[in-house]
C-alpha cells in the first residue's frame, strides 16, 4: 500500500472536469462511504439500452445553471446523515485537484440544497490518495480551469 498521500483539510476546492465544473467546494467526509453531488433536477432515462441520467446543476454561485447527462453505473441505497435511506443513481466521473492530479470516482446525485457544501467527498474516493486533517481547510489550493 502506498503512503504517498496528499494532506487535505476537512473542506477543499475540487474540480469535476468531465462535468465542466472547474472548481467546487467540497466537504471531505471520512465517515461517508460514497461521494455525493448536489443537482437541482434529475431525470432517469434509457437510450439504446443504456440507463442514463439528465441533471441540472449550478457549478458555482456566480455561474449559470448547466444541464448534463451521464451514464448511470448503478442505483444503490444511500443512508443520509438523518438516517433516511433512499435509492440514488451513481455516475463515474473524474476528480481533479489543484496540482492537476486526477482519478476516476463514483458519486451519487442528490439534492443537497440544505447542506453547506454542494459536494461531499466520501472515503471510497479518497482511499489511498488523501489523508484528512480535520483541523485544516483548503490545503490543496483551488483548481484552475484547463
Automatic annotation (TrEMBL):
It comes from the Bacteria. Signal peptide: none annotated. Residues 8-140 form the Retropepsin-like aspartic endopeptidase domain. Coiled coil: none annotated. This is Retropepsin-like aspartic endopeptidase domain-containing protein. It comes from Pseudofulvimonas gallinarii.
